[in-house]
Amino acid sequence: MKNTQRQLSSSFMKFLEDKNRDLEAVFAYMDANRDGRISAEELKKSFKTLGEQMSDEEAEAAVKLSDIDGDGMLDFHEFAQLIKGNDEFSEEEKKRKIMEAFRMYIADGEDSITPESLKMMLMKLGESRTTDDCKVMIQAFDNNADGVLSFDEFALMML
Q1: What's residue 18's pLDDT?
Q2: How many CB atoms lie within 10 A of CB 111?
Q3: Where's the EF-hand domain (predicted)?
């Protein structure tokens, strides 16, 4: 992983020589579909454009290196962390990112992830699961056996 990070930092140094460019411009360049996230495929294509070759495995490893919310993509903050060469987010940043992810899985007016809200989110992500499947998934991290995931339980799962 450190080797992949060094390769990324080295390759981007060429691209970032113009001191007037900032990470947002680089991020926007690499975010080909403009969805606000960089996929492993977008990362690989960007490297090819820059004259660098990157295998599928290297691109996946680079994304996983800084993908704190586990969505398989890099948002701007995760991308910036990767480029800066620091594999650790501050504790405050980690908590903020986990809270963002947690909020995606809870239904309006709720304060925990229920089997129903998990099922709805998975459907939005293109993964069809039954409510019973979601109950089993929640059980694996439901420390107090109340049938739902609190933020603290979700955070433990993410870390």
Answers
A1: 41
A2: 10
A3: 18-53, 54-89, 129-159
